[in-house]
Amino acid sequence: MIIHTAEFTCSYVDWKKCPKEHVPEYAFIGRSNVGKSSLINTLTERKGLAKISNTPGKTQCINFFSINKEWNLVDLPGYGYAKTSKKNRELWMKFTKDYLRRREQLQNVFVLIDGRIDPQNVDLDFIQWLGENGIPFSLVFTKNDKPKKTFKNIENFKETLLETWEELPVNFITSSVTNVGREDILAYIDQVNETIANDIDLEEE
Ligand code: GTP
Ligand code: MG
Fold first, then answer.
1. Which of 33, 49, 146 to mutate to test the pocket of ligand 1 (most atoms within 8 A of CB)?
2. Which end of the chain is more exposed for a tag (fewer CB within 10 A), N or C?
3. CA of 32 relative to ligand 2 center, distance in Å
4. pLDDT per residue over 13-28, tens digit each?
5. Bigger pLDDT: 56 or 76?
6. Proximal ligand: closest to the CA of 52
7. Pairing, β 25-30 against β 71-75
8. What single DSSP character describes residue 17?
9. Which residues line ligand 1 (CB under 6 A)?
10. How does residue 81 score in pLDDT terms, banded at 50, 70 and 90?
């Protein structure tokens, strides 16, 4: 997929206020600092599009970006540790979960997992919650700049998931330093977009 345009649209803290237009939507979530905003900039090849920071808890709203005027990309606040109060974190989690459960346009949630560390309960719990709520998702192992260093952790994570899941979800391996995985994610989004467009054509026939 070629990214012709990538524009920030608006930020929300209430899913009911999110854009009404019916275009396919893809959200990015994961622990604070896992690299969500960096990945969005890598995918769109726009360095400053989503705000990046070393301080966990940079993204605090539901941020919408319109891509090629055809689909929306959504940057969500991280879960887990963040440099903010417990009350703030609970508030972010509440509106984020409401958005994920209620948003009709949402086609897929990309759950980002830090490929450099061991499986974290907070990630496994969140994936469990997505499953219980029937929300479609795939996994993205981030910070894979040096595959030799991440390989074991990624395999470990998959094995841990298979203790409770019958099969693994679609998964990607990425690095915002080397851009590995960028094409794979965009191709996946392209494929889902095409399926939706074909379904609409069939309905109209
Ligand atoms: P919050 O918005 O705070 O939840 O964080 P986030 O998940 O959006 O992470 P962000 O993209 O802001 O990146 C956090 C830190 O990780 C920054 O210092 C990035 O430069 C770094 N980072 C992100 N992706 C990669 C990567 O692929 N490799 C390496 N080495 N560092 C990365
Ligand atoms: Mg962010």
1. 33
2. C
3. 7
4. 899 999 999 999 999 9
5. 76
6. 1
7. parallel
8. G
9. 30, 32-38, 52-54, 56-59, 78, 142-143, 145, 175-177
10. low
- For residue 170, what are its two tokens? 């679609």
Task: Report the Cα 125 to chain-centroid distance in Å.
Answer: 16
Q: Cα separation of 200 and 203, whole Å?
A: 5
Q: Specify whether the CB–CB gap between 88 and 78 falls below 8 A.
A: no
Order of all β-strands in the sheet with 6-12: 6-12, 62-67, 71-75, 25-30, 106-114, 137-142, 171-173
Listed residue (131, 95, 126) closest to 113, CA to CA: 126
Specify the pTM: 0.94
Q: Distance from the CA of 204 to the center of ligand 2, in angstroms?
A: 39
Give me 116's structure tokens: 């450099």
